[in-house]
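Notebook, student rotation project (T.W.).
Task set for the rotation: take a protein with a known small-molecule partner, predict the structure of the complex, and write up what can be learned from the model alone. Partner molecule chosen: S-adenosylmethionine. Sequence and SMILES entered below by T.W., checked by me.
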Amino acid sequence: MTRALLHPRIASDAVSAEAEARREFAADVARDLSLRPKRLQPKYLYDALGSQLFEAICELPWYRITRAERRLLTRYAAAMTEPLADLTTMIELGCGSGEKLALLAGGMRRRGRPLRVHLVDISPTALDLSARTLATLPQVSVVTHGASYDVGLRQAAASPLRHGATLALFLGSNIGNFHPTEADAFFRSVRRALRPGDGFLVGADLVKPEPVLLRAYDDPLGVTAAFDKNLLVRINRELGGTFDLADFTHEARWNATELRVEMHLVCRRAQQVAIPVAGLSVAFEAGETIWTESSYKYVPAGIGACGEAAGFDCHEQWIDRDAGFAVTLFRVR
Ligand SMILES: C[S@@+](CC[C@H](N)C(=O)[O-])C[C@H]1O[C@@H](n2cnc3c(N)ncnc32)[C@H](O)[C@@H]1O
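Predicted structure of the complex:
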């Protein structure tokens, strides 16, 4: 076996970043499992296995978001990028595999200048995958930010090499994970990071019939259930948790008042679960749930209104009527 030799300083920085991330995970788990209803934050779904399971979900016939957005980006790449004169930088927040950014960059006509791409993702697995995907494109240089959306956005926006126009991307209906007040704050923070002439491209899943939505988040192959339950596997591995996976069932619920699909892990029997690294022993009643993710669904005008409330101009919207998915280009005046 060969081993890469790291400079001791780099190795110790990596160890302390990992220890800090573990401390933050433990603190969030301790706080969120003490709430009623119990919760866990969706960003923790994406460890190495979680990121791979998400890629598998994208291939499922019942999860149509990825294919719909791919179709729109393939067909309208030029129309989505040409309104930004002298586009030289793209920043993708929560890039996942990076495949959609590659479609957009590859589909730009008349790209005479090099393109600098900033990939922001909390998952090291997603960053590795997307950096490799983007590295195959000519005249594209890649900067990775292993960070949360806000930190990564700040780092990318502060890049001294940011000339010309910037296009920020928030695809895959990542916006749906935010409560409307968080979505509003998020739009405003992106608006603050951008400059006149820049753009913001947002992909959002649209409201559709309940059975279609529930199949997308509780598929017959059980891949989404594995993605959800992997959060308990992660707590067991990283925080010494004692969750017995056989006692928890994945459930998707449509909340018609809030227009969101909720993912829950339902505890089948009353029990106590220890999570020593988070300093916690959690009591569960039979039937009690842990709410792990929300996916808010939009109407096309609603997503435009969110951007406009934050100070963007809504430039154009492309809709895949078949799957019910919208990509909207916002511009900074
Ligand atoms: C639903 S996936 C979508 C991936 C990609 N945008 C697509 O369209 O396929 C969400 C991605 O965002 C990342 N992510 C989730 N929450 C995050 C956060 N708070 N900060 C940074 N990245 C996050 C996940 O690791 C994952 O790669």
